[in-house]
Write a structure and sequence with these properties.
heterodimer, A: 359 residues, ABC transporter involved in vitamin B12 uptake, BtuC, 14 helices, B: 310 residues, mainly alpha, 13 helices
């Protein structure tokens, strides 16, 4: 670093690049910045009229002490985990999949098609819905993936635009031929028992948690021990390096987007079949955004995604009580997630640099 | 003929927010700061504009200025994250969108601004000019901001291409190291570009509520911030093409509600899909020309890391 840096002199503060931090120290900084984000969020909540003790009760005490709330957190966490994985898989290949919500919609449309038309014998219904959901998601990511590979169309914008198209298509179905015939409400008819993920026997915990953990293991293996994981690491480091090594980058991007789209579709299936028992017009809201933030916080690590999803699910369940008892809009949960991620993103500065104050 | 006049007279109103937004994006991105937070800044501007009209009083022009300034205020946070703390610009942009969605929803609910209609900005009274056949309705029956936008473009054009500040702005997006070596302050230049750029994005948001919808509901911008980003790529980061793109898009948006009138029947939700589908087509079409891919400022999205150079 040059000592005659005029920018830094003027501010009386100098920046120095740190030696790479140890894993433990990085972890401590991560935890500290998450708590900073929680602290800022709680200050906003207190300013909105919720007392500090109420926050402590809603976000910690009631969740740990009540089996019912704990199981709600676990159920809420499953689609978060899968959304996080969907984001992480794509990000490993530097493909920014912002279209998770659109892919969830098409996944759920495909699964709901199976459900309302009673396709296949009852025992295989859930499996069919699972597969259909995955391919529905794949269907909705193929166009952005193809445009990225062939024409280098920015995938952030294309996947996002696809969300709006999917959403309007969903409304077209729900206000049209798929409207619930028994109630007339704009959501699909309720799934039959054979189309709802079975309970596991403890509280309302259901099979979605098993699916989520299973997918974490698969993706963990894919990243850590498979040959493909190595290819992804190279591609993540530098696409030029990958090309020089003879890796077919566009093929890898295609595979990665297919996996990501499949996971997003499954995420939609977990919400509709595991939580809401039907396709509603808002089931997907917030999952795409949370998936991206979860994967960012977890540094694309599947195990980390599991942990962060539990944190986010706790925020959602706590936020739902705040909504009911204190009239705090549910958007607060989204705000809290964004604030936490902002603090973590900002903390990377302090991992990389040391500030030196000179008088 | 009546159809044509009616259609064209609606174009400026649809094109103006896009023109303002793209102008802001170009100022920001010409300095090398990739701004994916456009949707967020638009939302913040839209809510602030509505908030002023509901809580302060019927002052549409003041509301628009506040919309722009609140965009800038939010932009200051974004600028701090990406220039000083060097946060990944893609992540920072997305965080701004999420933050804005949560913040506007929370604040507007707490302040009771949701679903409250207001007067807003009406068309400018140009007296006798508006009576002129054909060009009267198209050119002289518009609101003040339409004309201001043209003025903004002229001023911006002069600044970016004809002054030394503009030269520095462009240089810092192409080669920040050279600007640094020449004694320019890269961080400060980029911060300024972000603040000015987000002012116009906030103003575009204000236009959506103060002039167009005259009401605030959550997520009122409905993805138009993303369309603005797509238009920047179409415009190849050039002001003249930006204005062209905004006008073309305004023509399309103004045509969509009129489609039924010329006997073009589509289910409602397919009509609502069209702006997004068309934007996607525009992006495909711009990328068919290889010139566009290389048109981006060379250091776009790359933080300036002086301390890490040897």
């Amino acid at each position: 670093m040059s000592s005659t840096s005029n920018i830094n002199k003027r501010k009386g503060v100098k920046l120095e690049v740190r030696d790479p931090m140890s894993f433990t120290n990085k972890f401590i900084v991560l935890i500290l910045s998450i708590f900073t984000g929680l602290f800022i969020s709680f200050v906003i909540l207190i300013l909105s009229g919720v007392s500090g003790s109420a926050l402590w009760k809603e976000f910690v005490v009631y969740i740990i002490t009540s089996e019912k709330n704990l199981s709600s957190v676990l159920i809420q966490a499953s689609p978060f985990v899968v959304a996080g994985l969907a984001a992480a898989v794509a990000f490993r290949a530097r493909f920014w999949n912002i279209g998770i919500e659109g892919q969830m919609i098409f996944g759920t449309i495909a699964a709901t098609y199976i459900a309302i038309n009673d396709v296949g014998p009852e025992p295989t219904r859930l499996l069919l819905m699972f597969i259909a959901a995955g391919f529905g998601g794949v269907f909705w990511i193929l166009l952005p993936a193809f445009l990225k590979i062939k024409l280098d169309v920015n995938e952030i914008i294309s996947t996002l635009l696809m969300n709006y198209i999917a959403f309007n298509f969903l409304l077209h179905l729900l206000y049209g031929s798929w409207r619930d015939p028994s109630t007339g409400f704009p959501n699909s008819e309720q799934y039959d028992v054979s189309e709802i993920l079975p309970l596991l026997g403890w509280q309302s915990l259901n099979f979605s948690s098993v699916i989520a953990v299973f997918l974490v293991i698969i993706i963990f293996w894919l990243f850590m021990s498979s040959r493909f994981g190595f290819v992804l690491n190279v591609l993540h480091a530098s696409s030029n390096m990958a090309r020089y090594m003879g890796i077919r980058v566009s093929l890898v991007i295609l595979i990665v987007t297919i996996v990501s789209g499949f996971l997003s579709g499954i995420c939609g299936f977990l919400v509709s079949s595991g939580i809401e028992s039907r396709m509603t017009q808002s089931f997907f809201i917030g999952f795409g955004f949370s998936g991206i933030l979860i994967s960012f916080l977890a540094r694309d690590n599947p195990i980390g995604i599991l942990v962060v999803s539990l944190l986010f699910a706790t925020l959602v369940i706590g936020g739902q009580s705040l909504q009911v008892f204190y009239q705090i809009p549910f958007a607060m949960v989204q705000l809290m997630q964004a604030i936490i991620v902002m603090c973590v993103a900002a903390s990377e500065f302090f991992i990389r640099y040391r500030l030196i104050f000179s008088l | 003929m009546d159809f044509l006049i009616f259609w064209l007279s609606n174009v400026p109103g649809f094109a103006t927010p896009f023109a303002l937004g793209v102008l802001g994006m170009i100022i920001c991105e010409r300095s090398g700061v990739l701004n994916l937070g456009a949707e967020g800044f638009v939302l913040v501007g839209a809510m602030s504009g509505a908030g002023v009209l509901i809580s302060v009083g019927d002052l549409p022009l003041f509301a628009l200025v506040i919309a722009g300034l609140s965009g800038s205020l939010f932009g200051l946070l974004f600028g701090f994250l990406v220039t000083i703390l060097r946060v990944n610009q893609v992540i920072a942009g997305l965080i701004m969108v999420f933050l804005a969605q949560g913040l506007t929803s929370l604040l507007s609910r707490n302040m009771d601004w949701v679903n409250k209609p207001f007067e807003g900005l009406s068309k400018l009274n140009t007296g006798i000019f508006s009576e002129i056949p054909i060009i009267g309705p198209i050119i002289f029956q518009q609101d003040l901001l339409v004309y201001c936008t043209l003025l903004f473009y002229l001023v911006a054009f002069y600044f970016i291409y004809r002054t030394s500040i503009g030269l520095r702005l462009r240089a810092v997006g192409e080669n920040p190291e050279a600007v640094d070596a020449a004694g320019g302050d890269v961080i400060l230049l980029r911060l300024l570009a972000v603040i000015i750029g987000t002012f116009f994005l906030g103003l575009a948001g204000g236009y959506f509520t103060v002039v167009v919808s005259k009401i605030w509901v959550d997520g009122i911008s409905g993805g138009r911030g993303w369309i603005i980003i797509a238009l920047v790529i179409f415009a190849r980061w050039q002001l003249s093409r930006a204005l062209l793109g905004a006008v073309i898009f305004g023509c399309i948006e103004a045509l969509i509600p009129r489609l039924a009138a010329i006997g073009f029947q589509l289910p409602q939700y397919f009509v609502l899909m069209m702006p997004y589908a068309i934007t996607l087509l525009v992006m495909v079409w711009s990328n068919l020309n290889p010139k566009n891919i290389t048109a981006a400022p060379s250091s776009l999205g790359r933080p300036f890391l002086r301390e890490e150079r040897n």
